[in-house]
Amino acid sequence: MKWIQSMLVLAVAVASFSARADVKSRYLITVPHTADTCLKALDETVAQKNLAKWDWGCGSGDHTGYLIVDAASDEAALSQVPPSQRAVAKLQKLNKFTAAEVKSLHSK
Question: What's this model's pTM, rounded to 2 decimal places?
Fold first, then answer.
């Protein structure tokens, strides 16, 4: 019986560690380009096989790609951007607030 309890404790510890290792942050990535380089930016995104994840402002004259991803690090988030566009990409780590947190911010 003691052996089973020890195994259960070990299983819970491993599961807890695994859950922490998989913690991801949400990022908003913006990648501007010009009208002249628009098709190149789109083609590179198609080649990376993640075009469906992106939103684009190009149709309204805002030549920017927008991507929201869950990633374990800045580097992992940036890997979703075609290599030639990474130098101009802007990563913004996102967070959510609860109503209680907003209320707490007002009291400070």
Answer: 0.74
